[in-house]
Sequence to fold (262 residues):
Amino acid sequence: MASNRLERFVAATDDECCPADVEERRRELSGFAATADERSRARDLDVLRTLADDTRYRIVRILEAAGEELCVCEFAPFLSVSESAVSHALGDLTTAGLLDRRKEGRWRYYGTTERATALLSALDATAEGAR
Amino acid sequence: MASNRLERFVAATDDECCPADVEERRRELSGFAATADERSRARDLDVLRTLADDTRYRIVRILEAAGEELCVCEFAPFLSVSESAVSHALGDLTTAGLLDRRKEGRWRYYGTTERATALLSALDATAEGAR
DNA sequence: CGAACACTTGCACAGACGTTCAATCAAGAT
DNA sequence: ATCTTGATTGAACGTCTGTGCAAGTGTTCG
Fold:
């Protein structure tokens, strides 16, 4: 049984260990696991999964580097995938809350959201050899 | 041709627009695209892809909630996947630089890295209805 | 109107990914 | 030494997903 392992571990780790100690630790750990099941989990995973793709990541990086919203036709040529793929990527990013969308005439403008900026900053701040 | 679209866009957007303006804008945009192709890109994508999985995300959340390193047997029972899957997940997370690993006797301890903490913080700080 | 344009959406397929089973390894315990 | 325990590794299978093609939407221009 899987729970036996935890029991043995607690017994081996704690010098003085009674069954109550095992149960207390189990409840504590269960609390940590509950934290990982918060309702924000599904949303977080969606955001991460969306950004974890080469095309979508590059789009966000470009828009972040630009510092302002850009028209699709301004960055699509640099992505080396079809127009269709770009559009799919933009739709996913917008749904995930990583991009904002604005329509003007026949052009569509996209810009990064606060959430996208925060994630990229976290990556940059903790990159290998980050200053 | 794809570049024509950008040309037309610049022409339509700028009031006074000469061919040189189009070229300048193209170079500027090309610079943004180059930013997205930095060497850190592969690493960033690896990190994001690794965290963008339910099992791996929950592991990191649990270790983050614990605030200290935990033995595998302490959190594996809460993940509702096989031991093997947990181990694969831990290997991926460690390779991606999201977890630290320590060996002691026959137990292995895992804890979150600064990078993992930074990413979760970015998610929490920008969640819907964040404080 | 109809044509051109900027972009989006549905569909189908090839490649990638997570899981499990089984075998394996490292380190006590007997 | 041999067995058990905690954990890792490899292979195979089923599922998910990013892409391109083709068709469709909405907007402007002649």
Observations:
- The mean pLDDT of chain B is 93.
- The two ends of chain B are 48 Å apart (CA to CA).
- Residues 48 and 119 of chain B are 9 Å apart (CA to CA).
- Chain B has two domains: 2-35, 42-125.
